[in-house]
Write a structure and sequence with these properties.
Length: 260
């Protein structure tokens, strides 16, 4: 019986990536640099950077994404640190409770948030949007930080304590630097989907607040594929730059041993 090389098993994954990852990205790039007739043009980019409404939506989307990311970090890091220092059985159960909302579709979670605000007679708007963003993406911040803290070599902390470092010193000089990789992963996992979402903003603001994802959706639905692809490409470039920055920071931390 003829045996196959291990590399052959990667063929289905390569085909999947080509069809559902590479090809859509290539199509977005092609549509971005062409007009309705298929001719090469930069008019789509010029239109974006000269349209005040789209630029305002773009800036506002980044602002909402940054606020959401900061709030998730402020809430998620202490939660992850407490879980990593809790008793093993209790921490696993608590982590599962934090991760449990990730098993439910985001649209269902958002509709539940709308129902909660209606029940409490709270107005839907920017406040509800930020609350919904944090609620939906907080687990994505907690989990990578918790994983990093859980796998961290505790001997560094013990060494710092033996050398007379205070708990605050141990936390700022040992725990935080060693957990930067998890923090950066959490930031990316929150920032990237937040800047491109549209369903959460539509439901929690009754379409009163428009984010960049909503602008892309409106253009695609109205048949303006070229302009919608241009906005999507700009958003992808921002996400790519953010990812590269994160990778460079992670590499620099590894080269320095992860400690400040």
């Amino acid at each position: 019986m003829r045996t196959f090389k291990r590399s052959y098993w990667s063929v289905p994954y390569l085909i999947f990536m080509l069809m559902f990852v590479v090809m859509p990205l290539v199509m977005i790039a092609i549509y971005s640099f062409t007009d309705a007739s298929g001719s090469f043009t930069l008019a789509n980019f010029k239109r974006f950077f000269t349209t005040p409404e789209d630029l305002h939506t773009f800036a506002y989307s980044i602002e909402v994404a940054l606020i959401t990311t900061v709030l998730c970090l402020l809430l998620g890091y202490p939660a992850a640190w407490i879980l990593s220092n809790a008793k093993l059985n209790r921490s696993k159960v608590t982590v599962m409770l934090f991760i449990l909302p990730m098993w439910i579709n985001m649209l269902i979670r958002t509709l539940a948030t709308v129902a909660l605000f209606d029940f409490l007679r709270l107005p839907l708007g920017e406040g509800a949007l930020i609350f919904g963003m944090v609620y939906n993406f907080l687990p994505f911040m907690i989990y990578p930080i918790y994983n990093t803290l859980e796998k961290m070599d505790k001997s560094y902390i013990e060494a710092a304590q033996d050398l007379g470092a205070s708990p605050a010193k141990v936390f700022t000089k040992v725990t935080v630097p060693l957990s930067i990789h998890g923090v950066l992963s959490g930031i990316l996992m929150v920032f990237m989907p937040t800047i491109s979402t549209f369903a959460i903003s539509e439901l929690l603001t009754l379409n009163k607040v428009k984010l960049l994802g909503t602008t892309i959706q409106e253009n695609i639905n109205n048949g303006m594929w070229n302009y919608g692809s241009t906005i999507a490409l700009i958003m992808l470039l921002i996400i790519g730059v953010t990812t590269l920055f994160s990778d460079s920071e992670d590499k620099r931390d590894n080269e320095s041993g992860g400690l400040i």
